[in-house]
Amino acid sequence: MNRAFLIARQEFIKYVTRRGFAISILMFPLWIVIVTLVPQWTGGGDAPRVHVFTVVDRAGGTYANALYCAAQRQDQQALGWTARSTIPPRSPTPPSFRAAASKA
Asked: In angstroms, what CA-CA distances link 58 with 63, 100, 102?
């Protein structure tokens, strides 16, 4: 058992005293810092995500109006309580839908 310990100790000291071990010990924290900061530098950290989608509404505009109202509520909730009181209330129907409905 004593010989195995001496061999393990000798191998450990040989590995720790190498230049590659010191470089890897110093590079690991640097790699962690780079991995956490690069997304913030490139704008991927806190940027709001924009989802664009198309809704085909064959029910006569009821889904479009519901989606528009839900988006308005979500926008008001995102602005918070202070900005909500200063924003005038909007029409529940978007202008483009009102124009299309008046033509029909």
From this structure: 9, 14, 17
